[in-house]
């Protein structure tokens, strides 16, 4: 299985990089993992609604340029479906069983994802109704994907 994590912005925090690198290394025993960063759109602190939409659209174009036609897209969105770790594992296993070998998880920038990206998504996934920094979501996501493969293989993993 080929898993891409497409995310807006550069990761600067060393401690997050270390955690992501560790889980990506562990995950590489089960799947090919690729973390793709697209540049965030520079914008002032205070934006009008129209300016926010424009920023998300530009970031969305960059995201969509990294997604192939045959890729199953899971967008991280607050209004997405919440799942347990076991449900995520079962869903990833089902995708693999039915020939979906390319999966892209998409994490938007600080303003979220454009409507275009959300329409392209095959599903929307929420980790919580809370808002998390998108940089931290990378670490949480890669850990949960790793956990999914451990669950699917029946291998022990702390609960």
From TrEMBL:
<comment type="subunit">
    <text>Homodimer.</text>
</comment>
<keyword id="KW-0808">Transferase</keyword>
<dbReference type="InterPro" id="IPR029026">
    <property type="entry name" value="tRNA_m1G_MTases_N"/>
</dbReference>
<comment type="similarity">
    <text>Belongs to the RNA methyltransferase RlmH family.</text>
</comment>
<keyword id="KW-0949">S-adenosyl-L-methionine</keyword>
<keyword id="KW-0698">rRNA processing</keyword>
<feature type="binding site">
    <location>
        <position position="108"/>
    </location>
    <ligand>
        <name>S-adenosyl-L-methionine</name>
    </ligand>
</feature>
<dbReference type="GO" id="GO:0005737">
    <property type="term" value="C:cytoplasm"/>
</dbReference>
<keyword id="KW-0963">Cytoplasm</keyword>
<dbReference type="InterPro" id="IPR029028">
    <property type="entry name" value="Alpha/beta_knot_MTases"/>
</dbReference>
<dbReference type="InterPro" id="IPR003742">
    <property type="entry name" value="RlmH-like"/>
</dbReference>
<dbReference type="GO" id="GO:0070038">
    <property type="term" value="F:rRNA (pseudouridine-N3-)-methyltransferase activity"/>
</dbReference>
<protein>
    <recommendedName>
        <fullName>Ribosomal RNA large subunit methyltransferase H</fullName>
        <ecNumber>2.1.1.177</ecNumber>
    </recommendedName>
</protein>
<keyword id="KW-0489">Methyltransferase</keyword>
<feature type="binding site">
    <location>
        <begin position="127"/>
        <end position="132"/>
    </location>
    <ligand>
        <name>S-adenosyl-L-methionine</name>
    </ligand>
</feature>
<feature type="binding site">
    <location>
        <position position="76"/>
    </location>
    <ligand>
        <name>S-adenosyl-L-methionine</name>
    </ligand>
</feature>
<comment type="function">
    <text>Specifically methylates the pseudouridine at position 1915 (m3Psi1915) in 23S rRNA.</text>
</comment>
<dbReference type="Pfam" id="PF02590">
    <property type="entry name" value="SPOUT_MTase"/>
</dbReference>
């Amino acid at each position: 299985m080929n898993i891409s994590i497409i995310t807006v912005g550069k990761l600067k925090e060393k401690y997050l990089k270390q955690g992501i690198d560790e889980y990506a290394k562990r995950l590489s025993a089960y799947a090919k993992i690729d973390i793709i960063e697209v540049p965030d759109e520079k914008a002032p602190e205070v934006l009008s609604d129209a300016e926010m939409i424009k920023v998300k659209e530009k970031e969305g174009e960059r995201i969509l340029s990294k997604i192939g036609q045959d890729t199953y897209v899971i967008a991280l969105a607050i209004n997405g479906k919440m799942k347990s770790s076991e449900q995520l594992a079962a869903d990833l296993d089902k995708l693999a069983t039915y020939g979906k070998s390319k999966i892209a998880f998409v994490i938007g920038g600080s303003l979220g994802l454009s409507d275009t990206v959300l329409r392209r998504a095959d599903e929307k996934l929420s980790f919580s109704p809370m808002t998390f920094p998108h940089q931290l979501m990378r670490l949480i996501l890669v850990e949960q994907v790793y956990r999914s493969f451990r669950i699917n293989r029946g291998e022990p993993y702390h609960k």
